[in-house]
Design brief:
By secondary structure, the protein is an alpha+beta fold. The chain folds into 3 domains: 3-46, no CATH class; 97-108 and 176-266, no CATH class; 112-174, no CATH class. The chain is 29% helix and 34% strand. The protein has 5 helices and 15 strands. It has helices at 3-14, 20-32, 34-46, 56-90, 260-266; strands at 100-108, 112-120, 126-133, 138-141, 146-149, 152-153, 155-159, 162-165, 171-174, 176-184, 190-198, 208-216, 231-237, 246-250, 256-259. Strands 11-12-14-15 form a 4-stranded mixed beta sheet. α1 runs parallel beside α3. The longest helix has 35 residues, at 56-90. The radius of gyration is 42 Å and the shape is rod-shaped. The chain starts with a helix and ends in a 6-residue tail after the last helix.
């Protein structure tokens, strides 16, 4: 190291403020250089009795700061892990609407050819449905306000032991089933689902179903409440899908509302 640099370092060396590495370099140099050693001796004699500063308190402060920093990092890490567990395992969030794909198709009942839909005037307009076997002969008798199937009056319901015959104010519709598939696009290995179907009051209100799909990790999940794969499938009897029947897919952003009656019409299972 050059003498000029050593002479610049001598003041802090004499004051005891130099680092261990700097002190070693200065001592090594003045042991070999008489000129710098002389400058050091003069400088040392000019400020006799200056005690070497105690750096122990500063070391304690640094140690305390390091411990506090480590504690903060541990708290933040624990918070992140807890939040991740809550969102991905315990309480996963709903999927976004742009990750949901809906498809549908129909199939016919092998045993039932038609379903006759009518209303019961003495039951406050309650909807009545009755199955017509495949190959049966159907006659709608307007005069007697009844429906004959293979020579027998078609019974729509039995309430408190009383049979209610189907009135001739209805129509025959294909005995089909609407199949709806809802796919959730997700990188996670499991999709938790919540499905609820609300029954209507005396069939006066349209049916309403709700579905929630929650992508998650399979860790500690009840797999009975998770999909097999990434697709939810549900079948609906087309004859029960009155106008206004809907399936709502609850999403993290905007919910998706599916008009089940319109889908059944689109599949040719119902008429407008």
């Amino acid at each position: 190291m050059k003498c000029a640099i050593i002479k610049d370092l001598l003041p802090i060396y004499c004051d005891g403020l130099a680092s261990d590495e700097t002190r070693e370099e200065v001592e090594k140099h003045i042991a070999e250089c008489g000129g710098c050693k002389s400058v050091y001796e003069n400088m040392k004699s000019a400020v006799p009795g200056i005690p070497k500063p105690d750096i122990q308190p500063m070391r304690k402060v640094r140690k305390s700061l390091r411990l506090r920093l480590a504690l903060i990092v541990m708290i933040i890490t624990a918070g992140v892990l807890t939040g991740a567990y809550q969102l991905l395992c315990a309480h996963p969030m709903l999927a976004k609407s742009d990750k949901i794909t809906v498809s549908h198709y129909s199939r016919l009942n092998d045993e039932v050819m038609y379903v006759y839909i009518s209303t019961l005037p003495d039951r406050h307009g309650q909807t009545c449905t009755a199955s017509v076997p495949r190959g049966a002969k159907v006659e709608i008798d307007k005069e007697n306000d009844c429906v004959w199937v293979d020579g027998k009056m078609l019974v729509g319901a039995e309430i408190n032991g009383t049979e209610y015959y189907v009135p001739a104010n209805g129509k025959l519709v294909p005995a089909g089933i609407l199949c709806v598939s809802i796919r959730c696009d997700t990188p996670f290995k499991a999709v938790k689902y919540e499905y609820e179907q609300y029954p209507t009051l005396n069939n006066l209100l349209p049916a309403e179903c709700h579905l929630g799909l929650r992508p998650c990790l399979p860790f500690r999940q009840d797999m009975n409440k998770c999909l097999e794969g990434d697709t939810f499938r549900q079948e609906f009897q087309a004859s029960q899908l009155e106008r206004g029947a809907k399936l709502t897919i609850d999403c993290l952003d905007d919910d998706i509302v599916i008009d089940l009656h319109e889908l059944a019409v689109e599949e040719g299972l119902l008429e407008e």
